Amino acid sequence: MKNKSVAWVSYTTIRLALVVLVWLALQLFTPLRGLLAVALALLISALFSILFLSKQRDAMSESMFGFFRRLNERIDASAAKEDYLDAEPQAQHDAIDQQENPAGLEDGDQGGPAGTSTN
Fold this sequence. Notes:
Layout lengths: L1 H28 L4 H19 L1 H47 L19
Helix pairs in contact: 1-2, 1-3
């Protein structure tokens, strides 16, 4: 578990360091300032990341996949348990209705042929 979280932390740290280093280089060696320098630093650091950080990115994505897979399994187990608990009282209610009224008639139903009245 610790190794997987280290992958996420190391990749994020390297990416942030790349952005800062590229931004700093832009500040020192070009006349670019402000938002343009930040946007260009993000773009250049993303290109460096694509080219040189594939190993770290793969390790991070594997750890994230495992985390979300376990999370989804817990959600599915909880939903299945909830469905089971919701269905149990309904089954008991149906069994009680069947014992009280075996013909399946609702209260107020006459039980005669359709359209006839016993009054």
